[in-house]
Amino acid sequence: MFDLTQGGGAITAVLGWLMVFAALFAANELTRRFKWVGFAAFVVMPIVLTVLWFTVLSDSTYKDWFHLAKVYSSTAGCIIFWCIRFVGGTKKDGTKWRLADKKGFLFLAPLILAINILEACVRDFQVGGMNLTTPTVVDGLKVISGSWNYMNGVAGLLNIVTITGWFGIVIKKKTKADGSHDMLWPDMLWFWIIAYDLWNFAYTYNCIPSHAWYAGLALLIAPTLCAFTLGKGAWLQHRAQTLALWCMFAQTFTTFQDEGKYFVQSAFNPTVYTVVSAIALAFNIGVFFYMIFKVIKAKKNPYTNDIYTDLKEYKAIRELAE
């Protein structure tokens, strides 16, 4: 799947992966647990870095549409989620208000998620349409075209369709152990998260193969592990924060994953490409049909209502809310 003989070799690649994974997990913990650390990381730091990217780092940073769209859309998601968690106040009549109670504002969460997925689907279809039969450099990265691009593009579209419970987002109640006010999404359960991870890994492997070792595996496992352990129910928040942090790092230090001792490249094996995308497509088809089953059984609109309310995983997350 990966050629670990390049760069500094297998040991260096594994150590680099562990370093990236640990850094992402720790950074997510800091930015989610401390309100103003999150503000500094996703509002102040992007402004400073943008100035650097287009001035002193202009010759080395990524300038293609996809990398720029990814870094700014993921950061925008973090800012929106921060506002949902913390912005509120008191009206003149003494009643309290907060953005977390505004259904129209909550719609931005699934919208940002869908846009991010769609961006990657477009890229998969784009690479597939290039008909590259051998590894060819496109926008600075080697890619190869095949049926896997179309399979995974469809898997991503299904992943968008199966985003349910758009307005069911709630805020985690404050406890002595965790005062993070995480943005919980009870209807976004483990099977959808795994379907997303499989699809997104296949996307990175298909379209940014020299980044898949870090931006695929490490960047996907970090928020998923947090969502299943310390920060249950807040996968989307963890995903947005780790993605934005990684994109800012990758934009600033492009040589980390593109060359040097931490460089890890795909093996460019068509069979592996096909298997990876086929697994992603099959799992997303399964989640799609499960959603249809729940919709028919509950007779609910899957987007304006939560449809997995009878599942114990849903109830466990809902109990964490204010």
Give a written overview of the molecule.
The protein has 322 residues and is mainly alpha-helical. It has one domain (2-318). 62% of the residues lie in helices and 6% in strands. The protein is built from 12 helices and 8 strands. The strands form 4 sheets. It has a two-stranded antiparallel sheet. The longest helix is centred in the last third of the chain and has 29 residues, at 270-298. The protein is globular, with a radius of gyration of 20 Å. The mean pLDDT is 93.
Summarize this entry quickly.
By secondary structure, the protein is mostly helical. Helix content is 62%, strand content 6%.
Low-pLDDT windows of residues: none
β-strand percent reads 5-15%
Q: Please report the distance between the alpha carbons of the first and last residues.
A: 44 Å
**Proportion in helices:** 55-70%
Can you summarize the main beta sheet? 2 strands, antiparallel
Q: Kindly report the average pLDDT value.
A: 93
Order of helices and strands: EHHHEEHHEEHEEHHHHEHH
Could you tell me the radius of gyration in angstroms? 20 Å
Chart the SSEs and their pairings.
Blueprint: E1 2-3, H1 10-33, H2 35-53, H3 65-86, E2 88-90, E3 96-98, H4 103-106, H5 108-129, E4 136-138, E5 141-143, H6 147-161, E6 170-171, E7 183-184, H7 190-207, H8 212-228, H9 235-252, H10 255-258, E8 265-266, H11 270-298, H12 312-318
Antiparallel strand pairs: 1-8, 2-3, 4-5, 6-7
